[in-house]
Design goal:
The chain is an alpha/beta fold. Helix content is 36%, strand content 25%. It is built from nine helices and ten strands. The strands form two sheets. The protein has a six-stranded mixed sheet, with helices on both faces. The protein has a four-stranded antiparallel sheet with strand order 2-1-4-5, covered by helices on one side. β4 and β5 form a beta hairpin. α4 packs across α5, α5 packs parallel to α6 and α6 runs parallel beside α7.
Length: 256
């Protein structure tokens, strides 16, 4: 195993986890920690189970073996057991996953309506504030179809941060975005992490994001069906003992 820099108190602990679909094992022997305040990337090639790992952390799929703890609490696939924990999570899906029939303000209001006792005026005010934080002031009454893909991602981020979560899960944030929009989204994630003190867990293969904002990462390898490195991305790029990791992090002509 290769270790780099990173650290802080463990916020997420993955211990001896096997991910499987029936008898088909996707990944085995996954053991790593995510420190509080980390911007932690789950990386690896196609078919390595990156998004599946995110689903396990969210309790959407049970591990075939092992356990995941967040803030010391065991993650399960039981919605009732997870209800209190989910209140502390924010999730930004790859597509943005906005409801097309709702305005941006209404989209951001949904978690506030579901998990708080605030009245309608307070919810509307907070939703507008969250949209302003991601640069969408003045777009509160727009529908998702009326704005660009990058703006939809930012609106999705506003909704994910509506409850001031302690941990934010992000699935392929740069998917479908041009480089400038992708960089702006990375900057927003960094700003929100710093202002809220949240831990951020991101699935991505985009090197500019991984090196630009990542503090730590785990590499899932589809060939060996296990993790083969964990640590600071730049450290792994230059010092990993695994050629697969070095090739992945040195691919193309990307320069920091």
């Amino acid at each position: 195993m290769t270790y780099g820099n990173g650290g802080g108190d463990a916020h997420v602990v993955v211990k001896d986890v096997t991910m499987a679909y029936g008898s088909n094992v996707l990944m085995r022997d996954l053991t790593f920690e995510i420190g509080r305040g980390d911007i932690f990337f789950i990386i690896g090639g196609s078919g390595s189970g990156k998004s599946t790992m995110l689903r396990h952390m969210l309790g959407l799929k049970a591990a075939a073996k092992g356990e995941i703890r967040i803030g010391g609490e065991l993650v399960t696939a039981d919605p009732e057991e997870m209800r209190g924990m989910l209140r502390r999570f924010g999730v930004l899906y790859q597509s943005g996953a906005l409801w097309s029939a709702l305005t941006l303000r209404e989209n951001v209001s949904v978690p506030l309506e579901k998990f708080t006792a605030l009245d309608a005026d307070e919810i509307a005010r907070l939703a507008s504030l969250k949209l302003a934080l991601v640069g969408l002031a003045g777009f509160e009454d727009y529908y998702p179809s009326e704005i660009s893909g990058g703006m939809q991602k930012r609106a999705g981020l506003a909704r994910a941060m509506a409850l001031d979560p302690e941990i934010l899960f992000v699935d392929e944030p740069s998917a479908g975005l041009d480089p400038l929009s992708s960089r702006r989204l990375d900057e927003l994630i960094l700003e929100l992490r710093d202002s809220l003190g949240a831990t951020v867990v991101i699935v991505s293969h985009e090197l500019p994001s991984i090196f630009g904002i990542g503090t730590n990462c785990v590499f899932l390898d589809a060939e060996t069906k296990t993790m083969i490195a964990t640590g600071n991305p730049a450290y792994l790029r230059d010092h990993s003992e695994h050629p697969t990791v070095r090739r992945f992090l040195n691919r193309g002509d990307y320069q920091e």
